[in-house]
Amino acid sequence: MKYFKIGEVINTHGLKGELKIYSTSDFDDERYKIGNTVYLYMNETYTPFKVASYRVHKGYPLVSFENHQDINLVEHFKGALVCVSENDRQRLEEGKYYVDELLDLDVYSEENEFIGKVIDVEETNGAQNNLLVEKEDGAKVRIPNVPAFVIDVDREMKRITIHVIEGLL
User: What CATH number does the domain containing 77 carry?
Assistant: First the structure.
């Protein structure tokens, strides 16, 4: 089975086993519904846990798990990655992609010139994320992941077509 990271346990909260999570998911309310299963990745193992409670405090999800509602049972989870299985992944609307779906895609201009490969998707606090593209010469460029620049994403062909303007590359 394949797993996808949706966050990381950064601390405990209180005495009742709540975990403070740094979330990288856009679907926290769905991911942490009571009764849902998430996986903690620790010591090279994915361990399933059923969500017992979920709330948001100061911008962070606080989650507790069934049979682990005591701080002494969860302290060692600090630093664990929070994951979901591929079967539990949300379907995205047309034109939206998960980060891992964009990694390693080849990037071409509208004129079919090879530019490079996507090596990362940088999340910003601004309006869009940036595709970090490594060119053939090893140089890295950031392409804003917005329709003005990203013309087409073809996951089957493993290809992204972009609109190049002066100064972009």
Answer: 2.40.30.60
